[in-house]
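Notes from the 1:1 (GR / supervisor)

We went over the backlog. Supervisor wanted to see one worked example end to end before approving the batch request, so GR pasted a single chain during the call. The sequence is below; no edits were made to it. Supervisor asked that the structure be written out right there so they could see what the output format looks like.
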Amino acid sequence: MKITKVEPILAGHRYLFIKLHTDSGLVGWGECGAWGYQQPTAQVLCQMGKLIEGLDPMRTEFIWNALTRNMHFRGSITQAAISGIDIALWDLKGKILGVPCHELLGGKTRDKIRIYVNARDENSQELASAAKSLTDSGFNAIRFSIGHPKNPDGRCGEAFSALVNRVSGTMEAVRSAVGWDTDISVECHRGLRPAEAIELGRAIEHLRPHFYEDPIPDNPEAMRTVIDQCRVPVATGERFINPQEFDTLITTTSVRYIRPDMCVAGGLTAGRKIAAQAEARGIYLIPHNPLGPISTAACLQLDAAIPNFEIQEYPMANGVCRLDREMKTPFHVENGYISVPDGPGLGVELIDDIDKVFPFKGMCGGINLHEDGSIVDR
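Structure output shown during the call:
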């Protein structure tokens, strides 16, 4: 069997899927994760297609090494393209052999995957009410974002103490609403300075957050200081693009949880390598997953096979999941868990003509400023 074509498919607000064609008629599906740069990544996919067309798709490790070690330049767009191709190869391999990817990764270590979902609203009391509604629906792991309030001029003018008091007050409200049988995680989206991150971590410690996500930008030395000086468990790494970055994080800091993104860190091939690195040091995985059905399925296949899985990000906000409209058969979600897909390959199918049903719009972010006109980290 030979690879005949790598087809990029742009869809929705920020999806870039890959349809990997073979001369047998079988296809594999992948997804790329550099979501602000979908169109450039699609161009990279076309270039990489020239390199792998004619190769045997069963040689997943060889192709992964060829693309990661032979390319002259590196970066998130390149790695997103490699990730999508790799996921498609694993999907295809599972279909050829008639087994789910988790069987190829060593078999199940669990039957279902615990997930956390997002609570969102404009103020702390409304957000707490949204979180309570989710727990009443059977979820026992909730995440909320600290947010970045803007003044009438569109700038982020929040003072140090105001930020710490606002977010700790939100955490108090959510904890009060959902009780102590629910895990709560706090998403900072790299929006804090180290001093703010340390003080906020100390302020919410007594409320026992499950994890403190990306408190500061990806600065290894500063991150080590934050991890050492606030005792809440830090989770980070969603923007890392290869196993080497994760190795530096887990060997030079006391990070508790790492967040590889299957669609940007190198696909399932990289995911199993990263999981093994972390397992040796007692570090657990919380895979990053803000994208679509293929990304989610790839995460679930890895989650099922590794012993050091913690919990899975699931793109649902206030009880609404966009994935349900994008798949022929939605994931089976019950009481805060997803059943592991057992179909061949990734075990999922996109709806027909997803790019026509959900035309590509693109989502490129924006520039955020502090009150004084300086850049806000995101």
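Supervisor's comment: The two ends are 44 Å apart (CA to CA).
Batch request approved.
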